[in-house]
Prior knowledge:
Layout (H helix, E strand, L loop, with lengths): L4 H8 L25 H22 L3 E2 H5 L2 E2 L2 E2 L9 E2 L9 E5 L14 E4 L8 H12 L3 E8 L2 E14 L4 E5 L15 H27 L15 E5 L15 E5 H8 L3 E3 L5 E3 L1 H5 L4 H7 L19 H14 L1
Amino acid sequence: MRRSFTDARRLDHPSTRRFARPDVVHTPRVWLAAGMDSAVENALRKQIFDWVRERAEFNGGFLHRDELLYYHVRGEKLPIIDFSRGIRNPADFTSTLSIVSTVNGPYDDAESDDGLLHYAYRKGDPFTGDNRKLRNALHTGSPLILFRKEVKNIYTPVLPVYVVDDEPENSQFIIALDESFTFIPDIRHLTTPQREYARRLAKQRLHQPAFRTRVLVAYESRCTVCELKHASLLDAAHIVPDGQDLGAPTVNNGLSLCKIHHAAYDQNMLGVTPDYEVQIALDLLAEIDGPMLKHGIQEMHGRQLTLPHRRRDRPSRDHLAWRFAQFASAR
Ligand SMILES: [Zn+2]
């Protein structure tokens, strides 16, 4: 599905932002009858996954609640999340479609230090209802979507994920972020390399996308340097890099930057003073080249950052100072 430039601008502009209702897609009506053939369910699941990926990419890595609630197939509403229950088990699906991990939420679905997610049984009978369909995902290997929700009404999708174990003694399922874990016979006793791999995956597939969502939402999906508003072209850049003492993935250690300004920032071609002023490296200012250098880089020199509305989301001056010292000494 392609959107026109005008559509994209209208959808992404903060002052007029609203989220598109999904287009109607064509799927045989057979699934609407009682029960659904597994091939039809798999095809529909894939179609939903593709759509979620596409929308998330367009929006900058996340979906709005309304986009997920108003998904339609052939004119029939098929919500991708269950807003009130946090687990989505469409009546005609044999296994779970999606779960929501609410950070600091009421359910014990926290990540563990082995890089896997421990998802608490839903209320009620552990062998019927929601729990049955989640358990069925374990038996069939059927993938599902994990939505990470940290900001009100905003969902960061992680997909596909897999149910890899059932622990009745702890009333929880174990969710892995990669299909490879479905082939590990003893998920409860991971080897050190397996555990390290799971932790790396959690960082790449949970923490980094969640950081991007938090930062883009705080900056209303625009580049803090040039104000570009195409979310799919925006990244969340660390001010103090990941791995340094101050390099936490918090919004006040982040900047919403378009791809070119992110790369320029990482390479110390562009710096930001603790007073939120953009500086371009002197050698680049002296260079003569085409319009990208002139308009895209040199003309940014001396601009003030466009900051988040909420004071607590604004970049930390201490972090900016640390990073600006790197910029100043680099060239
Ligand atoms: Zn930019």
